[in-house]
Amino acid sequence: MFNIIPFLLVVIPLVLAIVIIVRKFPQLVLLDVESLPEVKEGKRKETYLRKRAGIKTQKQKKERQEIMTKVMVLFEKAQESFRGFVGGVQKQLVKQKEGLISTQKTPAKVVPKTKEEKQTVSEVIDRAHAAFDEGKVDQAEEMFISAIRQDNKNIDGYKGLVDVYIKQEQWQEAGQTCKFLIKLSPKGVHYVKLAKIEEHVGNDSKAIILYKKAVKKTPNRAGWHSHLARLLEKTDNHEAAFASAQEALALEPENPRFLDNVIEFAIIVNNKKLAQEMLRRIRKVNPENDKIPRWRERVQQIKKK
C-alpha cells in the first residue's frame, strides 16, 4: 500500500501535463511566431543593418574608383613626362653625336683599333660596295651604316652612303651625309659631290659656292672650272663665267668643248680680240665644226671697245 503512493505522486502530475498540452495544442499550432513583437523588431534591425552595410559598401566602392581614377591620371601624366624626358635625352644624344662629327675642328684622340677590327670595317665596306654594284641598294645602305657605327670617322662609309642616298633620290639625306663627309675630309671632290646634290634640287647659288671651294682646293680640275662657268652663266654672271671658262681652257688648251665655251662667253662680254683668237684656234683644232660660220658672223658684229 505504501509502495503505490510514490508511484501515484509521479504519474498524476504527468497525466495533468499531458491533458493541458492536448487541450492547448491547436492554439500552439496556430501561433504565428513571425508576428511576435520581439521577432519583428529583430527583423527590422537586421534589415536596417543590411541596408547600412550596403550603403557603406557602395560608398567605399565609389571612393576606391575615384582614387583609382586619380592614380591613373597621375600615372598617365608621369608616363607622358617620362616619355618626353626620354625623347629629349635621345635628341640630345643625337645632337651630341652629330656635333662630334660635324663641328669638331680637330680630330679627337681615338684609341687605335686592332688589325682585326680594321679588317672587319674594311670587309663591311667591301661587301656594301658589292651589294651597291649588284643593285641591292637597301642592303648596301645597312652595311655602310654598320661600318660607320663601328668607325664614325670612316670616310669610305660616308662616301658610299652618299651614293646610296643619291641612287635612292633621297636628296636631303644625301646632302646631310655629304656635309658630315666634308667635315671629316674637306676635299674638292667632296665639295663637288655636294654641289651636284644642291644643283639637282635647284639650289644653283649654293652649288656655285661649293664649286668655287672645290676649285680652290683642287685648282687643276678643268671640268670643274667649266661646269662652274655654266652655273655662273645661269645666274647671268657672264664675266665670272668667262673667267672660269678661261681657267678650264688654260688647263686643257686643245679641248674643243672648252674652246667653244670661251668663244661663246667672249662674244657675250664683247671681247672681240679674244673671240677672234678663239675662232682661229677652233679652226685649227676642229676645222669641221659646223658652228664656225655662225661664230665668224657674230664676232664681226662685235664693236671694238
What's the arrangement of secondary structure elements?
Blueprint: H1 4-30, H2 37-102, H3 115-133, H4 137-150, H5 155-167, H6 171-184, H7 188-200, H8 204-217, H9 222-234, H10 238-251, H11 256-268, H12 272-285, H13 292-300
Helix pairs in contact: 3-4, 3-5, 4-5, 5-6, 6-7, 7-8, 8-9, 9-10, 10-11, 11-12, 12-13
Task: Report the uncertain regions.
Answer: 28-33, 85-97, 100-111
- Using only C-alpha atoms, the radius of gyration works out to 51 Å
Largest sheet: none
Structural class: mainly alpha
Task: Note the overall shape.
Answer: rod-shaped
Task: State the order of secondary-structure elements, H for helix, E for strand.
Answer: HHHHHHHHHHHHH
Report the total helices. 13
First-residue to last-residue Cα separation: 183 Å
Share of helix among residues? over 70%
Oligomeric state of the chains in view? single chain
Structure description:
The protein has a domain at 238-305. It is built from 13 helices and no strands. The protein has helices at 4-30, 37-102, 115-133, 137-150, 155-167, 171-184, 188-200, 204-217, 222-234, 238-251, 256-268, 272-285, 292-300. The chain is rod-shaped and about 175 Å long. The model is unreliable at 28-33, 85-97 and 100-111 (pLDDT under 50).
